[in-house]
Design brief:
This protein has 248 residues and is an alpha/beta fold. 45% of the residues lie in helices and 15% in strands.
């Protein structure tokens, strides 16, 4: 039980990566408040669920105050909330640009700020944000997504240096993991597109030739980053990609 007695907020826990992380933390003994814009029956359980739009400061602050009240304190935050839309750079609208940055970059900024005073009062804690290698390398048809994730990476590094004196670590995970959103995108491909996609994955990902599994490949790393063993790791980009990307 590596997280026994720890109290976490996991944002984006309605499905996919966030759901897997929240479930894994509970299995390791943590109390978890799950936040998302909606929940399915999959998330039913002993830990609280709170509806929250991460782009709204009012909702974020209200939701975190509720979560900390229910948990009796806070030891960490994992923010996985995200969306992806593929659009050529020349065709991105103001609305699409704003929506992408609101969810990813504003959402990271607001959730991190909301967690900060509670973690400082606790004497420290863990913040784990979610970036992407798209924030480090060219991402055709996703320039707004790339820009948002690049901002998350920059925010994480700066916040880590400001908040380290309070015992708060801030790290950024860069995952290449299968999600429901990814599976839905693949399902919409033609047979030819899917064949080309699978070939690219085989060439790009050294381990297994396909995106990783949230439960077996991602959550063990998150459990470590959320625990005491990671107390001297902060401001880092943690690449969990099977070799698809690298950081420096």
């Amino acid at each position: 039980m590596q997280l026994d007695g720890k109290r976490f907020v996991v944002v984006g826990a309605g499905r996919g990566i966030g759901l897997a992380i929240a479930d894994a933390f509970v299995e390791e003994g943590a109390q978890v408040v799950r936040m998302d814009t909606e929940f399915s029956s999959q998330t039913a359980g002993p830990n609280a669920q709170v509806l929250c739009d991460v782009a709204s400061r009012t909702q974020v602050e209200t939701s975190f105050n509720q979560a900390v009240s229910e948990l009796g304190g806070l030891d960490g935050l994992v923010n996985t909330a995200g969306i992806e839309r593929r659009v050529p750079a020349a065709e991105i609208t103001h609305l699409e640009w704003d929506q992408m940055l609101d969810v990813h970059l504003r959402g990271t900024f607001l959730t991190n700020q909301a967690a900060f005073p509670h973690l400082r009062a606790q004497g420290g804690g863990r913040i784990i944000d979610f970036g992407s290698h798209a924030g480090l390398t060219p991402y055709p048809r996703g320039a707004h997504y790339s820009a948002a994730k690049g901002g998350v990476i920059a925010w994480t590094r700066s916040a880590a240096h400001e908040w380290g004196k309070f015992g708060i670590t801030v790290n950024c995970v860069l995952p290449a993991i299968r999600t429901p959103m990814y599976e839905e995108n693949v399902a919409r491909m033609s047979s030819g597109e899917r064949e080309a996609h699978d070939e690219r994955m085989q060439q790009a990902i050294a381990i297994g030739g396909r995106l990783g599994d949230a439960k077996t490949d991602l959550t063990p790393v998150l459990i470590f980053l959320a625990g005491e063993g990671s107390r001297f790791i902060t401001g880092e980009l943690i690449s969990i990609t099977g070799g698809l990307g690298s950081t420096r």
